[in-house]
Amino acid sequence: MVTRTVRRFLITALAVAGVLLLVTSLVLLSRTMENSAEFSRLQLLIVSINAIGVVVLTALIIGHLFRMVREFRRRLPGTRLKGRMVFMFVTLSVLPVFVVYWFSVQFLNRGIDSYFNVDVSRGMESALKLSRTTLDMRLYEFRSRTEAMASELETADEAEIFSLLDALRRDSGAVELTLLGANNRIVATSSEYPATVVPMRASEEILLQTRQGDSYIAMDPLAAGGFQVRAAVPLAVRSAGQEQRLLHALYPMAERLSDLAGEVQGAYTQYREIAWLRAPLKQSFMLTLSLVLLLSLLAAVWGAFFFARRLVAPIQALADGTRAVAKGDFDTRLPIPARDEIGFLVNSFNDMTRRLAEARELAVRSQHAVESQRASLAVILARLSTGVIALEPDFSIRNANQAAGAILDVDLGGHEGGTFDALSAGNPLVEQFVQACRAHLDAGDSEWREQIVLRAEVGQRVLMCACTTLPMEGDVAAGYVLVFDDITALLQAQRDAAWGEVARRLAHEIKNPLTPIQLSAERLRNRYLDKMNDTDARFLERATRTIVGQVEAMKDMVNAFSEYARAPDMDITRFDLNILIAEVAELYKGTGQGVDFVMSLDRTMPPVLADAGRVRQVLHNLLRNAMEATQGQDDAYVEVTTELSSDGGADVFHVIVEDNGPGFHMPARDQVFDPYVTTKPKGTGLGLAIVKKLVEEHGGKVEAENHAGGGARVEFTLPVVQGARGRQGAGRRGEGGQAPGIQRERA
Amino acid sequence: MAVATIRTNLDARQLTGRHAWRASVALLSLLAIFLPGAAAADGSYKLFDVRSAFVHQVDGVYYLNARVDYTLTDGALRGLQNGVTMAMEVQLEVNHVRRFLPDNTVHTLRQRYELSYQPLSQRYLLRNLNSETQETFSTVDSAIRSMGVIDELPVLDAALLDADKRYEIRVRAQLDVRSVSGPIRLLLGWLADWRLKSDWYTWSLGP
Predict the structure, then answer these.
(1) pLDDT tens across A637-684, in order?
(2) Residue A638 and residue A641: Cα distance in Å, rounded?
(3) Burial class (CB in 10 A: 0-12, 13-18, 19+), A496
(4) Using one digit for the tens of pLDDT, what is the confidence trace for A337-358?
(5) Looking at the complex, does the CB of residue B29 fall below 8 Å from at least one CB of chain A?
(6) ipTM
(7) Strands (DSSP E) found in A474-555
(8) H or E element: which one contains A568?
(9) Taking CB atoms and an 8 Å cut-off, how many pairs form between chains A and B?
(10) pTM of the model
């Protein structure tokens, strides 16, 4: 964090410094435009500033370019936008700058050229020539004066030379007169400042010129300013052996003339210098201007990169955030760059992701709640004894509970997703159910309720079915829910209860008059039998016997009805069902009817917890029916089977009594167990009714059917009480290694 | 030299990762900016020549006698004719020669001249900036010739030198563009006509 702050501070400082340098260079350049002397002084500074700026900006731009190319290759979001923004910024900045540059160049060229027009140049030349002519006249005068002095010295005696020289200097106005001999030797000298100035000797150039006999005249600038005239005139040699002498004179230039001459020469020199430097000057201006232009362009390009990056950064962050949201990451939060429109957009994005996260969390919670409710509903449906089948709008099975399969005796797990009509394949009972339901569904009944009677080969089953249409989705129903229950047992129980009430009333209403009838018949016979003749006596005897016999029969019948209606308390004990079966069967084996008994008993069954007397009654009734049904058949047999199995998750005992008799001749299977329904000549019709009543008193079920090959089959079940299972294991352990399984006996 | 230093400091082989290319780019930029100047400094025309030079000691003072040939290019001559003042410089260095260490400069001297054209008198003015003396010449050759003669110039106090040590004295002459007037100063460094100097003329002094 600190490093980032320092880095940001450094970048800001560098940027500010760069801008200041650029502005400084531009200010300096504008000053040089006003004064070329300033340009001379500041040119190096300007060039240095711009050179540094060019190097720094070039490096920065190249860095940005490399970064942009790298991002473009990586297809980072926002790269194209950044490229377009950079192109736009650069274009917007480069074109105006180039226009300004072009006009500046034109202005510079024409401005500088205008300084050096022909008139000025010619004027300067004329001024110089005029000065030169004036000075030449003065020089000519000085030379003539010097030559005159030389003539006088030629004729002067050696002894007078010093005084003459001094006099000539004063008369001529010279500041110094020196007579030089051979080898530049000073013969005599006279100076206005003899104490401070050393006499001047002739230069090589003067000696060379005077040696040829010519006079020398020149105007020399003084170090302190102004001019002086230097003249040298050779003296004539009058006799052989006389050395060559030279008069060297220095004259001061008039102060006014010297100043004017100096000004003219200075101005001319400066003008020539500037004129000669015109081209380099323009080149310098152009170079400086070009550097400033280059710096401006580079700064503009770098600025384009910088601001494009700053502008695109939030958009790139938004793109990344959008991708993250698209991938399901709703926890993405973006930093808000500024309080502008982009910041508002980023803030909205953050708000949107927050809401999405909340919505997703809510959806997850709702889904969990729905799944929990669905699981609860599935458990409830699974434990529900009522069958439930949910159908899609196209009548395919969405789901069904376990009870539905149990009621219809169909594995509905394999039909989920299949059509409702497919349930009826190979199952006539279900086919009736499906047809009854489809009749309502096809008719468009939204809600209906019907008691459906399913008729089987033996007996019938009654289902109470209700259907509800699920809430509409548009114009189409979302589906249907079929709820049905097997009310066969309920109806049977109602019927049994009714029969029991009938039997009780019959027993009560019929039994009471029977005894007086019987007693009256016996009194009639006792009183009048002896008093009648034989014929009447026989008639009376026969009549009263018939009355008494029928009354007895009616009593038996009433007692049977009474027995059927009676519901004494159950005496529940634990006993071995196989042993009880064996005991009861033993009673029928010795009847001599020639019926084979086949005992298929599961010896591993645990003891049963029931009323042994009632179970014995059940077994008696079933075995008696079987014996009576097979009476007279050569190959008659009765088979009793016991086994333990699971029925809907609960263990039950199964006892099956089969015979190969003629079977049941009932229109409906359940009517077999109705009271007073019998096909036997001597039957009361209460045997199987009592069986059913006793079995159901134990919580079991009884079913009857005919074999496909002939004969009847009656199966009843008794539930295994939990306590019995615990003792089952103990009992098995007590059997000392007896092999489990079904043992088959033939009696 | 500056470029060499930068090159040493920013040796790309010492840099790692993504900073390497940035340093390379910056180096190239610097080279592009300064290389012409550096090349110009090293590629001067050797039109000046120190023909002879020696020192001799008189009364504890070493005096220099030297002869230097100055040859001006046409561009320099045109500049001189057009009012550009040319500054010449004769540099003298006395170095203590050490066996295992770099030489140590114990004394330096710069004898500076200024040559200009006087359009009014049509003569050339040669000024000795050290002695503040001046002389005019009718031709540039005579002025240059005069400038190339150095006679009995006191350069060094003998007491500054150790008689037991070996010294090396070297002399060279060059055009001093620093004294050239402003606008052309920068350009002169880029123009071959104004990059004039001689080689070092070197001789030994001492045991």
Answers:
(1) 899 999 988 766 678 899 999 998 888 876 555 677 877 667 666 666
(2) 10
(3) buried
(4) 777 787 888 888 889 989 988 9
(5) yes
(6) 0.71
(7) 476-477, 480-486
(8) none
(9) 111
(10) 0.49
